[in-house]
Amino acid sequence: MLPSLIFFDLDKTLAASKQPLTPEMAQLLSKLLARTNVAIISGGKFSQLKEQVADQLPEGTVLDHLFILPTSGAALYAFLEGRWQAVYEERLTDAQAQSICTTLETAMRETGIVDLASHSYGDRIEFRGAEVTLSALGQEAPIAEKEAWDPDGSKKRTLHDALVPMLPEYDVKTGGSTSIDVTLKGINKAYGIRKLCEYRSYIIADTMYIGDALYPGGNDEVVKETGIRTQQVKDPEDTMRVIGELLAG
Ligand SMILES: [Mg+2]
Fold first, then answer.
1. How far out from the chain centre does Cα 70 lie?
2. What residues are paired with 55 via a beta bridge?
């Protein structure tokens, strides 16, 4: 039997970093949405997730079955009465965002992990309402450069470990290939899972989480604390195989 709700990570699970779903992936997700509920949970902001996922789905897709949890679960959007609406959003105040930005800059300088004198593709720091995100090469960096920057994740780890004691009131997470996400304390993918299950009265045991980074230190690992059933995937192609099996099962 299909889980009553399936959570997906986005980057490297459903699509390459910041890229739209491929038409094949969009078709498969649409088939899944005809039969069960799907939630996308990622560090990206809502407009980005909507563009990458919801806007790629073929006409006739049951959007009422789709939930979007941007900014690492700090917000939840549902398709209600024909349009996307925020169910909740745990926003940072401007003062909180400003203090996080300053600390991120200090950490980049002090660790020497990001050369601030080097070229940046767009801003390195972005305030996303509920989250502040540091993207080491800039928000618009090309995928190939992003993937070559920190292939074993050690640079992100160093930045993360330096930031945790500098931002004790916040939750610091490693994000996509080059990013670090900062939200209010206790807000992470596990929080998003619990909030959506509570909102729609799903039992976590009847749901499932699919992601590429469930391993220790990976940015999907935190979901395990909810007790949710998990499925590790290698990349979007592997995810298509898993969805195919779910649809056939
Ligand atoms: Mg991922």
1. 6
2. none
> What distance in angstroms lies between residue 15's CA and the mean position of ligand 1's atoms?
9
Ligand 1 mean position, distance from CA 76 (Å): 18
Lateral strand order in the sheet of 207-211:
83-89, 75-80, 66-69, 37-41, 5-9, 207-211, 229-232
CA of 81 to the centre of ligand 1 (A): 31
223 C-beta neighbours (distance < 10 Å), count:
24
Tens digits of residue pLDDT in 145-187: 999 999 999 999 999 999 999 999 999 998 878 999 999 999 9
> Which helix (H) or strand (E) is 231 found in, with range?
strand 229-232
Q: Is the backbone of residue 72 left (phi > 0), alpha (psi -120 to 50) or beta?
A: left
Predicted confidence (pLDDT) at residue 115 exceeds the cutoff of 90: no
**All domains of the chain in start order, with CATH:** 5-90+187-248 (3.40.50.1000), 94-184 (3.30.1240.20)
Question: What's the 40 CA to ligand 1 centre distance in angstroms?
Answer: 11
- Residue 70 CA to ligand 1 center (angstroms) comes to 13
Measuring CA to CA, how many Å separate 66 from each of 32, 62, 92, 246? 10, 7, 25, 17
Bridging pattern class, strands 132-135 and 125-127: antiparallel
Whole-angstrom distance, CA of residue 19 vs CA of residue 151: 19
d(CA 191, CA 95): 24
Q: Is residue 188 within 8 Å of residue 171, measured between CB atoms?
A: yes
Kindly state the tokens that stand for 91. Answer: 């926003």
Ligand 1 center from residue 186 Cα (angstroms): 20
Q: 31 is written with which tokens? A: 């088939």
